[in-house]
Design goal:
Elements lengths: L2 E8 L15 E6 L5 E5 L5 E2 L5 H10 L6 E3 L19 E3 H11 L2 H12 L2 H14 L20 E2 L1 H11 L3 H7 L3 E5 L4 E5 L4 H4 L3 E9 L3 E10 L2 E8 L4 H15 E7 L2 E3 L10 E5 L3 E6 L6 E9 L8 E9 L2 E12 L6 H10 L1
Antiparallel strand pairs: 1-17, 2-3, 2-12, 4-7, 5-6, 8-9, 10-11, 11-12, 13-16, 14-15, 15-19, 17-18, 18-19
Helix pairs in contact: 1-2, 1-3, 2-3, 3-4
């Protein structure tokens, strides 16, 4: 019968309070690595979200693995209005190129071509959008179209859900490259294009890594941006914010000043204090884990080890887990393995073995 050892080790981590705020109806400031919420205001309030919906359109297209396929633009663009990249029927254009037009210039015509191609038709693609939303934890989101236009029933979500979506998307290197691009040039069989990114902060704030703008009469100004500094990766989402670019920059500056990225666990050998059951072994883990903390979080990180007492155990066997607790909540866990130490053979014993062979 296995017995369980529970060992708790307090991590002492180095100790300012900031008045986070924005003029938006809904705002969230979140770490994209672990989804830690730094600032929240009405983050579960469901609203029309306009063109930031295209983040979902983009990531689904990337995951279709059809990026280098060439599409011939058809009648689907007849339903496009508002912000367009003005592609034309019969034009041949790669899916990856359409994504740049989608994200840099918010092309509603591009969104319809993408949806028709990836989903077979727009209706099927919208179903894919909603299925993906549920899968990644967007619990208060309903997509009705691939672009966010009010005239196509609009898309409804929350600041929190859009931050979750962005956190997911930013783990994809192709997505990251597209949304961080300031200018994109393209030549097709019909036209030559030069698209400049509408995300103003890409030019005005050096830590910005991407994002998506949005506006409709119903949603008003919506904005998603991401930023990275000193190993800290953040997302800000604002819904209905007339001063969104300024608010985003201010929120980032406060967070980067208040928080630091701490290496909580480092892959390799670890020491488990007061563990005496296993003898002649080393303990190790296979993953790194870091977490953003402010100075007065120093007493709130705890490592808890749960180890199974095994009578027979093998080299490199998993014998338990280590849990990282923050404010009494589990924020991460990983397996703990053992490496059996080889006993050193004395020179006399080596000679004795050699003579006996």
């Amino acid at each position: 019968m296995k017995k369980l050892i529970i060992l708790i080790i307090l991590l002492i981590v180095p100790i300012n309070t900031y008045a986070y705020s924005s003029s938006a109806t809904s705002t969230i400031l979140m770490d994209t690595d672990n989804n830690r919420i730094i600032y929240a205001n009405n983050i579960h309030n469901v609203r029309s979200v306009a063109s930031i919906s295209k983040i979902m359109t983009c990531i689904l297209a990337i995951e279709s693995n059809k990026l280098n396929e060439t599409i011939t633009v058809g009648n689907e663009i007849d339903d496009a209005n508002g912000s367009n990249i003005y592609i034309s029927k019969g034009e041949n254009i790669r899916l990856i190129d359409l994504l740049y037009g989608l994200m840099l210039r918010s092309g509603n015509d591009a969104s319809l071509v993408i949806a028709s191609y990836v989903g077979g038709n727009v209706e099927n693609f919208v179903s894919m959008m909603n299925d993906k939303a549920k899968k990644i934890g967007m619990k208060n989101t309903n997509f009705n179209n691939p672009n966010g236009l009010d005239s196509m029933k609009g898309n409804f979500s929350t600041a929190y859900d859009m931050a979750i979506l962005t956190s997911y998307a930013m783990k994809n290197n192709i997505y990251k490259k597209i949304v961080s691009t300031k200018k994109y040039n393209l030549k097709t069989n019909n036209n030559t294009y030069s698209w400049k990114n509408k995300n103003r902060l890409l030019y005005e704030y050096k830590y910005i890594t991407g994002g998506k703008t949005g506006f409709t009469e119903t949603a008003r100004r919506t904005l998603v941006t991401t930023a990275s500094k000193n190993g800290i990766n953040l997302v800000v989402v604002t819904l209905n914010d007339g001063d969104d670019f300024s608010d985003h920059k201010k929120l980032y500056e406060e967070a980067f000043d208040e928080y630091k990225n701490y290496n909580i666990l480092k892959k390799g050998y670890i020491e488990i204090i007061s563990e005496e059951y296993y003898s002649n072994v080393k303990y190790y883990i296979k993953d790194n884990f870091s977490y953003i903390l402010k100075d007065n979080d120093k007493d709130n990180i705890v490592l808890k080890f749960k180890l199974n007492r095994k009578y027979n155990y093998k080299n490199n066997e998993c014998i338990g887990k280590v849990y990282v607790m923050f404010e009494e909540k589990e924020i991460y866990s990983t397996d703990v393995f053992i490496e059996i130490k080889r006993k050193k053979i004395k020179v006399f014993d080596k000679i004795k073995r050699w003579l006996s062979d």
